[in-house]
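During the no-cost extension, the postdoctoral fellow (Dr. R.K.) reprocessed legacy sequence entries with the updated structure-token encoder. One reprocessed record is reproduced below for audit purposes.
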Amino acid sequence: MSSDCRFYEKKFPDVDELVMVQVRRVAEMGAYVALLEYENKEGMILLSELSKRRIRSVAKLVRVGRFEVCSILRVDQEKGYIDLSKRKVSALEITKCEENFAHAKQVHSIMRQMATTYPEWSVETWNEKVAWPLDRLHKSCYFAFKKWINEEEDVSAALDISDEMKKSLDAAVRKRMLSSAMKMCAKVEVSCLEYEGIDAVKDALKSGYKASTKECVLQIKLIAPPQYAIVTTGMDKELASKKIEEAIGYIKETIESRGGTFSIKAKPEIVGDLEEQETKTGDHSESESGSESGSDSEDEQDETMGNVVIDEAFLKKTEGADDDSD
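Re-encoded structure tokens follow.
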């Protein structure tokens, strides 16, 4: 059974749609690419659409095997011709397309897994029964699956599959999507040389937890005074970033109102995912791929920030220690 299948219900992309492609070969007139979301259909990026700048060497702009984000210029469904442009795509659009592609690819991997579990149905059949109906109902099957595993909505109720299949699908979705949860971290400096000193710092850090919610639980960890890390794990990058920014705002407002100082040492950024975390536990070797946040591996990030969580219990404990020292 072949697992090759388009990601979306439509067989061809629309004009101006952003797509992820892989360069297959480079010719004098341009580059031939495979549209990864559309059954690897062949398309072409003409020489004039490769760059806004003057082109001296095609090989320097595109390389065989490389992934690119392109915009659709023309589609001839009868002849199968697809013309694309690389130069019309902005940096912001590239980021958005890469994110959408990652979501669609994850859904596709779940459909492939279901086709392996139930070989009587092909990947396309699973798409027809699950992915594409959820795309229509929720605009994106990926976000429908997120609602499902977060128990916001039982999206499986609308699917025309057996209860046994729904149970298997639920297990596959949870395994795939929960293992891809990412970890986000920001680092701040909080200090106070005024009379209130450490009490002002404690109150400021405590105020950061006002941004923590059930959907996005925050932790504030001690690195080494006066540096602290604000950390969260989850699947929603935008929500995680927003909540950490809120916590930063609360801490800054509180400490400055008490005469202290505040500065951001590292903005919210992804430092790894939970799947990587599990595979790296106890392994102090260098990361092969590195993290999205830079050259430091996620283990190094955790070593730097330590395991001391600045929570309610810790603050009460330190308050007791302060009283004893008096």
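Residues 273-305 have pLDDT under 50 and may be disordered. Residues 91-117 form the longest helix (27 residues). The remaining legacy entries will be reprocessed before the final report is submitted.
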